[in-house]
Amino acid sequence: MKTSLTPFAKFLIALAVVGAIIVGIKFLAPNAGLKMPSFSMGSKVKLPEGVSKDTKVVRIGVVTWGGYAGGQYFNEGFKANVQSRFYKDYGFLVDFVVLDDFVPSRDAWKSDEIDLLWVTADAYTTEVEALAEYKPKFIFQADWSRGGDAIVAREGIKSVNELKGKKVSVAFGTPSHTFLIWLLKAAGMSLNDIEVVEAPSAIDSAQYFKAGRVDAAVVWSPDDEDLIQNVPGSSILRNTKSASHIIADGFFVKEEYLTKNREMLKKLVEGWLIGAAEINSSPEAKERAAQILADGLNQPIAFTKKAIENVRLATYGDNVNFFNVNGTYRGVTGEDIYLEMALEYAKIGLAPARIPAWRTVSDSSLIRDLNLVGNIHGGEAAATFSNSSAGEAFATKQVTVTFPSGAAVITDDAKVTIDREFGNIAKSFGNARVRIEGNTDSVGSREVNVALSKQRAQAVANFLVSRYGFDRSRFIIVGNGPDKPVSDNTTEAGRAANRRTDFQLLQ
Predict the structure, then answer these.
(1) Among 14, 94, 419, 492, which residue's CB has the most CB atoms within a 10 Å radius?
(2) 37 occurs within a structural domain
(3) Using one digit for the tens of pLDDT, what is the confidence trace for 197-211?
(4) In a 3-state reduction of DSSP, which class is residue 100?
(5) Is the predicted pLDDT of residue 32 greater than 70, yes or no?
(6) pLDDT at residue 122, rounded to an integer
(7) Dihedral through CA 25, CA 28, CA 31, CA 33, nearest 10?
(8) Last residue of a domain, one of 204, 239, 274
(9) pTM of the shown model
(10) C-alpha 71 chain-centroid distance
């Protein structure tokens, strides 16, 4: 892989020079001609008529993205206003400021012109060091991305594994980049297995693909749909609808601001999560939220409806899980994402080799102090799967899971291997079915080997169900025996390579 952004310091310098104009944009429409709201640094919030000058105002920096709809809906708009439920129910005003440019958004937060600022848990690792003097605290999750990012490939490429050696364009340091890294991990690959073509933004990445410069491109919706309509034979390999727990949006504040405004922030988060729950559960609320976003972002309502549909608005229950408040959650947490991507981004110089512990850059106290009851406030239910047939695999990872000779018992070493090599992938791609194929070498009877390989694949599935609470119907079990060798069975090394378990994520 070729990149000029190896040292972390160079990455920060590059951000400052270039302005990271699109890095901060989460879901910008491809219609570049649409006028975007702007923010003049130093501008003051104009208090609505009749509001006391002593009324507190919370300024929240956001980008053009549907995942913040819960707060904007509860606020009855983007600007501070007396119709806001934050004002009516809690007595303070909220003002949303659209800051689609990365560096100006961080500058506004540092200078106290913005109180809360958006961030994704995966990219948080790339900036916590630069923000250390301000003691940032990630205080709540706003959403999970569910369709905002996609990878489009030219004709003939039907799986992630087939990207090996191919040119793939992606915007560095963005959620698209994170998505690509996870897709490659699911196929047992890394960025070193492809030829990475760095694009300034996901929009540029789409243009590279349209121009025939790359074999595949990580893009934003609806650019993915535009590409498959205009590039003959192209297809969407995957998007974040199945990669369900990879991109998590949230907000951070300065530790000092949190200390001084804890009660107000608790009410802000409570109102925001109530708004998210209402949108999730009511078509009328979702329609109202889409109109509020259309007005506040100056975008067509068709765009804002899709923007909301491309996320899971996080509820109180989702936040309890995200911060693992109860200590028993087995799904993907904020800390999981933060630690995983710290390792991945450190490899390519977008994050320092050592980052602060998650507990020092997050604060779950506001969520712990809340108690929203009722089904609409609960965490998202785990995915369930029917027994109907699944499509082709979009990623295949080969893992050597060692069993005692002639047995299908999962050893402690095998459990560690499964956890390390596939557990996090299965959690992160929570909406994808999984086919587990057991394979053996050619020693012994084929009939015995086929039966044994199926028993071993089933044992692996049973372990995953027990360990992570996955729906048992999610797994398709296959015993290939010696029929699908990947190496030469005449050598010991070849036979060892053939004694493997293949994990496949399915369309």
Answers:
(1) 94
(2) no
(3) 999 999 999 999 999
(4) coil
(5) no
(6) 96
(7) -50
(8) 239
(9) 0.87
(10) 20
